[in-house]
Specification:
Number of strands: 2
Mean pLDDT: 80
Keywords: Amino-acid transport, Membrane, Transmembrane, Transmembrane helix, Transport
InterPro entries: AA_transpt_TM (IPR013057)
Shape: globular
Strand order of the largest sheet: 1-2
Protein name: Amino acid transporter transmembrane domain-containing protein
CATH topology: Sodium/glucose cotransporter
Subcellular location: Membrane
Order of helices and strands: HEEHHHHHHHHHHHHHH
Largest sheet: 2 strands, antiparallel
Pfam family, one: Aa_trans
Low-confidence stretches: 1-55, 461-480
Amino acid sequence: TLAFIDIFVEENKQEEDQQGETVWLFQEEGKSEPSMVADNGDEPDDDNNKLTLHVPETSHQISTDSWFQAGFVLTTGINSVFVLGYSGTIMVPLGWVGGVVGLLLATAISLYANMLVAKLHEFDGKRHIRYRELAGQIYGREAYYITWALQYVNLFMINIGYLILGGSALKAFYVLFNEEHTLKLPHFIAIEGVVCILFAISTPHLSSLRIWLGCSTVLSLIYIIVACVLATNDGLNAPPRDYTIHWTSTTSRIFSTIGASANLVFAFNTGMLPEIQATVRQPAVKNMLKALYFQFSVGVVPMYAVTFIGYWAYGSSTPTYLLNGASGPLWVKASANMSAFLQSVIALHIFASPAYEYLDTKFGITGSALELKNIAFRILARGSYLTISTLVSAMLPFLGDFESLTGALSTFPLTFILANHMFLVAKKNKLSSLQQSWHWLNVGFFALMSVAATVADEDEGVADIEITNSGLLRDVHALR
């Protein structure tokens, strides 16, 4: 709501960002007012003078982090608690050939698309610290707000996923010690939400995650190593597994495959690369490319390991939360589940940081993070945001459907369609006809995939709801 109110209340005035760079406003074509002047003194192309827009400075810290820290932020996202679900949500519907090839292709195309966005960070000589600003600079006013809406929907849905998985991990920890199961998943999602609120209040911005990124890495290694070891032990001691892909019809086969492809792109992409790149010190493009190389080389190894080992161990019966199917010592499983729960809190903060940055900047929150008024604001603003997210999370029981829906509605458009088309428009005078055709092919292909994945997810969601409703009816009859 605040985002759309901001459209009408902001005035067109000149601002300076934290680095002292001048931010001139876009002006309508044909107007006599000055157009945006790039930091290097060059005038932007006439095609870019499309927007009358005030771009506020940020209240958060920027341009201070090394590429290594940015790489750890990206790796934290890719090896978050979501990796414990990929064996069930990617490998089960695709099988060995489709799953392995799909993951390798998704890695390559995701790296390529993110590199395109990273190279546009200083388009027209100015650092674009928000995805929507980059889109607005290239396309104009409408794209600014459309990108804003798409990105925030994407990040909101990812945060919901972390709340669901964090709650699931905490519930798995609980049932190890309590056989009565008096508490249900929504209760644990609520606990996850409270812990996330406390963490958000104590961690003012993305750059302040420094020590927490190290903690996140340790926590990730704990649950990934435990999951791999327990699954390997189960696989070695189990009879031959069934790796058959089970479909009820040809239509089900098509929809399951398309839905799994949306899960593939969901696994590798953040939807907030410019915001992460904003924290990186100069040269921002070069350093961000280093961070991306780190993410898509060293960073993907743990994810590959747990995904493939989990599917090898349990086959087509692999659960959507891998630790639920693993057998082993109680304390080992408990430590893995608790690590997954705690890591989800840190990872959620990364994907919620653009919303926090908007709120802090909108209301002019500056000064020490320990000032009473700043603490009170974080309690109110971030607490409200996460409370709403937690309530929504408690009503979304189907994790696989959630992942594919996020990939279809936001990851495909933000990471692949928009990245290729922005690069095409921004570099149109420098691209050969073959290069332009390549980018247009990507735009068309991923647009079709986005539509197909959305339709497929709706079909799978309806099927899951029908199954759940039939189960509820059986429970009611049993009670009678």
